[in-house]
Amino acid sequence: MASEFQNSVYSLLRKIPSGRVTTYKSIAEKLGKKSYRAVGMACAKNPYAPYVPCHRVVKSDGSLGGYSGGLSKKIALLRAEGVELMDTKIKYFERVVFRF
DNA sequence: GCTTTGACTCTCG
DNA sequence: TCGAGAGCCAAAG
Fold this sequence. Notes:
The chain has 100 residues and is mainly alpha-helical. It has one domain: Winged helix-like DNA-binding domain superfamily/Winged helix DNA-binding domain (Arc Repressor Mutant, subunit A). Helices cover 41% and strands 8% of the residues. It has a two-stranded parallel sheet. It has a two-stranded antiparallel sheet with strand order 3-4. A hairpin with a 2-residue loop joins strand 3 and strand 4. It is globular and about 35 Å long.
């Protein structure tokens, strides 16, 4: 069972529609915290994968950040959902970013 | 129970 | 434009 904090993060992640992405910053602020890093940690643990689309969370500058089990996997998943990428950076980031 | 670490972000040189 | 440093919260050691 995950902690309340993690559960809150997962709830928000599930709201992200396919083909869209969000940032650790947005999630943290939505929770009323500044815990950007803690959000990433919650995703890294993510016991509900792939029920929780943690691969749709990226850094505030549009780069993918990281991914447990290989960044390539994250790239493939995002591309499959229609997100255009330039290596580890999101192309047209402003266009695909999802705002709560 | 304190210290270290991490899928982060912002500011400064 | 790019790299380094500081700040931030939560989980793991």
